Amino acid sequence: MKDRRPGFDSELAGPVAQALLDTLPARTAVVDPAGVVLAVNHLWREVEPPFDDGDLDVGVGDNMIELFRAARGPSSAIASLFAGALEDVLAGRSSRWEASGDNRVEWWGRWHDAHIVGLRVPPGGAVISHTEVADDIRAGLELDHWSRYDRLTGLPNRSTLMEHLDAALDDNDHLALILLDLDAFAVLNEAHGHAAGDALLRAVAERVRVGVGPYGRVTRFIGDTFVVIVEDAGAVDVEALVQDLQGLVSRPIRLADQEVLLTATAAVTVAGDDHETAADLLRDASAALQRAKEAGRGQVVSAVPHAKLEEAERELRRALGKAEFRLVYQAELSLESGRVLGAEALLRWDHPTRGRLSPQHFIADAEVTGLIIPIGTWAIRQACRQAADWPMVIDSDPLFVAVNLSARQLSDPGLPEIVADALADAKLPADRLCLEITESAVFERFDVAVTTLSRLRATGVLIALDDFGTGYSSLSYLRRLPVDILKIDRSFIARLVDDVRDRAIVEAVVSIARTFGLRVVAEGVESGEQLALLRRLGCDVAQGYDIGRPGEPGEVIELARSMARHPSGRARGPMRFVRGR
Ligand code: C2E
Ligand code: CA
Ligand code: CA
Q1: Diameter of the chain measured on Cα atoms
Q2: Which stretches of 155-277 are DSSP H helices?
Q3: pTM of the predicted model, to two decimals?
Q4: Suppose 112 and one of 107, 116, 188, 231 were both cysteines; which one would form an S-S bond, judging by CB atoms 3.0 to 4.6 Å apart?
């Protein structure tokens, strides 16, 4: 018959106690009444202690109280608190001590449940155990914090912004909102990797926070857009503040082995009568930002009152309904053959009272209101229809037509279908259509742009990168971008003859184009001198007032015929169109 009395054989007691200790799921140590460690379990030995100070690493034989009291490093405060609690338990002033549940503290930088339990059997002592709180529980604890703050930058996030803003709108009539958006951030993210992108965002957040100082609250709105609420815009020079912030953002940022230059575009919205809620204010601010982006990188734009935008939208809808839009065409000349290769379609609005309007008067409104999609669709269809009717010019390939797209159209997933329909309905071969997009439009949403452009290009349509050189001109992205043509921005052409740097840029673009097998178009050519120089520099195609102003299709055809008869150089006379705007 076996002995069933409780307790162990004294010889077994030690090993069994140790085995039991080792089954515990917490770092556990047993101390004697003086605080000297008698035993520890395997977790205590194997799991790093949560202290910052190496000298708090306690093992068998150490006096835990003395060690903790003597701590001098960053954990000393919590260590002496813990030593006091242990003393209390060992002296019997309390039977147990715990920091768990609601009492749980951030122990040594990590969340811990900790227990000290007094031993009621002679000779006394205590069991000390602690476990790091499991990730999911910790997530719950932190959820509250991180539902209000942005993890990456530590700034208040969008929902906190809305709260602040609603409250501020209630008791403030001098409120201004600054939206600050990094330019071409998607490209940088792409070029340097996402970890670098995160580092850039953190650096920018910090600069903006410091730059704003006591004048406002900074939040991370979304992605690379930051919002500053200036509660007392009467007392702060908001314009100067915006300039400061843009200046701070554009100072070089050091990443591991290189310096990165960023710019930010800003929109300022002053709260007015039609801003009852945070959402109203943000709506106008976002629209203003979109305008600013249209205007180019690093711009500042003030919000247009919502009522004015609604008015613009009504007008544009009416114009579409009443067919007030027109396309004029500007010839593109081959510098090699001296022949007209095609023409770019440029939008005009024949406004009943304001006369013929050029795009800068209405494209931004059309973008913001979303009407650029139907208007742009009309332009694509109209250009295809008209180009299909263009007669053949003797001994030359049929003329191509180029149509401009705006950023909004480029991120429209329906675009490839719109283009395919326009080509099919007009019976125009795809390779006679070229779509022009600006660098900045591409880089607002690089990935989407690459996908859409690849789909378009697969159908045979040509793609031109417009205003090249003004945006984020980096070779690494060009390689990934499905384009056929680079259009050098006219600002470089304007200074080409006088400025050696602009000449160098044009030369560089030409050699880049050679490397990537692209065609180079110089736009805004206004003089014969520029034309001659461009030819010498190896530029392929030229476009500008010196060759022809935008005009009716008939004028382009006429020019094309005249150039076919005198292909060697620039014919004077019939090629100088002065009509149109
Ligand atoms: P862009 O694509 O850079 O078009 C060239 C602009 O430069 C045209 O202005 C043209 O008239 C002007 N230009 C041409 N040659 C010269 C020259 O020798 N010197 C100077 N100083 N300017 C010259 P426009 O027609 O006012 O168009 C402005 C912008 O509006 C275009 O810039 C394009 O981005 C946009 N746009 C035009 N049509 C459309 C369209 O159908 N859809 C969209 N989304 N945007 C369009
Ligand atoms: Ca263009
Ligand atoms: Ca252009």
Answers
A1: 126
A2: 158-170, 185-192, 194-212, 238-249
A3: 0.62
A4: 107
Q: How far apart are CA 254 and CA 429, in angstroms?
A: 49
Q: What is the pLDDT of residues 319-341, one digit of tens each?
A: 999 999 999 999 999 999 999 99
Q: Which of 404, 463, 485, 527 to mutate to test the pocket of ligand 1 (most atoms within 8 A of CB)?
A: 404
Structure tokens given for 108: 């040594």
Taking ligand 2, which is a single-atom ion, which protein residues have CB atoms under 5 Å away? 404, 436, 466
The pLDDT value given to residue 26? 85
Ligand nearest to the Cα of 581, by number: 1
Looking at the chain, the whole-number percentage of residues with pLDDT higher than 70 is: 87
Phi and psi angles of residue 215, each rounded to the nearest 5 degrees, phi first = -80, -10
Please check whether residue 552 is in contact with residue 533, taking contact to mean a CB–CB distance below 8 angstroms. Answer: no
Q: What is the pLDDT of residues 338-368, one digit of tens each?
A: 999 999 999 999 999 999 999 989 998 898 7
- Residue 167 CA to ligand 2 centre (angstroms): 45
DSSP codes of every residue in 323-384: T-EEEEEEEEEETTT--EEEEEEEEEEEETTTEEE-GGGTHHHHHHHTTHHHHHHHHHHHHH
Here the contacts of 271-280 (C-beta below 8 Å, separation 24 or greater) are 271/169, 271/172, 271/173, 271/174, 271/175, 271/176, 271/177, 272/305, 274/305, 274/306, 274/307, 275/169, 276/169, 277/166, 277/169, 278/161, 278/162, 278/165, 278/166, 278/169, 279/162, 280/306
Mean pLDDT of the chain: 85
Euclidean distance between CA atoms 303 and 270, whole angstroms = 8
User: Ligand 1 pocket: which of 325, 346, 405, 546 to mutate (most atoms <8 Å of CB)?
Assistant: 346
Look up tokens 């449940």; give the residue. 113
Residue nearest to atom 8 of ligand 1 (CA): 346
Residue 488 contacts residue 506 (beta carbons within 8 Å): yes
C-beta separation of 520 from 498 below 8 A: no
Q: What's the pLDDT at 222? A: 82
Residue type, 13: A
User: Position of tokens 């309007």?
Assistant: 357
3-state secondary structure 270-298: ECCCCCCCHHHHHHHHHHHHHHHHHHCCC
- DSSP three-state, residue 208: helix
pLDDT for the residue numbered 580: 32
Q: Where are any strands of DSSP class E within 405-461?
A: 433-438
Return all residues near 353 (Cβ < 8 A) that are at least 6 apart. Answer: none
In 10 A of CB 103, how many CB atoms? 10
Tell me phi and psi for residue 492, to 5 degrees.
-75, -35
**Residue 487 CA: which ligand is closest?**
3
